[in-house]
Amino acid sequence: MKQTIVAVHKAHLFFILLLSTNLLAQTDIKINTPFVPLGIINIAAEKSVSKHISIQAEAFVSPWESFGGKNLQIYMGTLEGRYYFKEMMHGWYVGAYGSIAAFNLQKWNYYSPQPVFDNEGNTELLADGTVRLTERYQKGLAFIFGVSGGYHFKINDHLGLDAYMGVGTTQSIYKGYMKDNNQRYDGAEKWNRSGELIPTRGGLMITYRLK
Q: What is the pLDDT of residues 129-150, one digit of tens each?
């Protein structure tokens, strides 16, 4: 997983440096404001390539091995193409995107401690005779493909706001662990697989245009 995280960082650092250079006109640098108070970094660079089309490179970093007692560590990179109906990087737009993410997190349905069962299906007991309860977490990779839509508000020649959301299919490979001893809860040695159709991105980005 570390190699994947390093590769994602390098690829999106290249895109952001490429798109943010002053040699390229009409480039917006962005930060997603709702995540800032949570200590989560979501930055992007968007570059126009024609009258109605732009390309955006985006990085999402949630460094929290523990956030409120829950695993919330995500390193994700996204590349998106957008089509603006009127003025470039202003007004309504639609897009399509692809993302790759490395994660160590707890799915919402694994937040509460649950009983642990032995190989015969019986609940395990602790030394004091109580039932063993523990939360679960998941570590793995996710591949996301989706469609997006939003509105880019122009404040002045440099500043703007980008409100957007996206829905996509998420295909994941992961391993599940119990929090009390970090052992697999599924009894498997190889990767688990899952697929979902869910909202995968959204927010309100402050934008700054390079001239």
A: 899 999 999 999 999 999 999 9
Q: What does the alpha-carbon distance between residue 110 and residue 103 come to, in Å, rounded to a whole number?
A: 15
The residues facing 170 across adjacent strands are: 144, 196
Q: How far apart are CA 183 and CA 167, in angstroms?
A: 33
Contact 1, 141 (CB under 8 A): yes
Look up residue 81 and give its two tokens.
Answer: 């193409």
Q: How far is CA 183 from CA 82, 101, 129, 179, 180, in A?
A: 43, 23, 21, 8, 8
Can you give the pLDDT at residue 12? 55
Q: What separation in angstroms does the CA of 25 have from each of 18, 19, 82, 134?
A: 12, 9, 17, 53
Phi-psi bin for 91: left (phi > 0), alpha (psi -120 to 50), beta?
Answer: left
The three-class DSSP label of residue 110 is helix
Q: Answer whether 0.90 is exceeded by the pTM.
A: no
Cβ(138)–Cβ(174) below 8 Å: yes
Q: Amino acid letter at 59?
A: A
Q: How many CB atoms lie within 10 A of CB 1?
A: 12
Condensed to tens digits (0 to 9), the pLDDT of residues 101-128 reads 999 999 878 788 889 988 888 898 888 8
**DSSP assignment letter at 125:** B
